[in-house]
Automatic annotation (TrEMBL):
This is DUF192 domain-containing protein. Pfam families: DUF192. It comes from Fodinicurvata halophila. InterPro entries: DUF192 (IPR003795), Saro_0823-like_sf (IPR038695). The keyword Signal applies. Residues 1-26 form the signal peptide. Keywords: Signal.
């Protein structure tokens, strides 16, 4: 009976441990500005994701994202990038940015927890994720310019 109880306890412990989300460490933050074609500027405080581990974690398991903030994914070189929403609980606008800081694609109002691939559509050096609807509300569009020290 004791062996059976130990097996049950062990099995339940493994299930509980594996079922818990990874707790994200506080990422480095910086300021990012988007300049629209009309000359308006919009400031964001962004968390930097510039390592493989940080890019893999992204905004997974977060229940909210403060207004005026986002996550800024930086890649070592310009390349075709594909994102997904697996384990991401909040809808996002995903902004793909080339090495010169120009927005090359925006995927608006992505679906939480979807495993559907969201491609950049061309070479990109960075990705900015913000709350769903922000790009439409602020008039941010493809061709607009992103200013951040990592893009210079």
């Amino acid at each position: 009976m004791f062996k059976k109880a130990c097996k049950v306890f062990f099995t339940l412990s493994v299930i509980i441990i594996l079922g818990l989300p990874v707790v994200a460490q506080e990422a480095e933050r910086s300021q990012l500005t988007i300049e629209t074609a009309t000359g308006e500027t919009h400031e964001f405080e962004v968390e930097l994701a510039d390592t493989n581990a940080e890019r893999a974690q992204g905004l997974m398991f977060r229940r909210s994202l403060e207004e005026g903030t986002g996550m800024f994914f930086l890649y070592p070189r310009s390349q075709r990038i594909s994102m997904w929403m697996k384990n991401t609980l909040i809808p996002l606008d995903i902004i793909f940015i080339d090495e010169g800081g120009q927005i090359v694609r925006i995927a608006q109002r992505t679906i939480p927890e979807s495993t559907t691939s969201i491609p950049s559509g061309g070479p990109a050096k960075a990705v900015l994720e913000v709350n769903a609807g922000v790009t439409q509300r602020l008039g941010i569009d493809e061709g607009d310019q992103v200013h951040h020290p990592a893009l210079q």
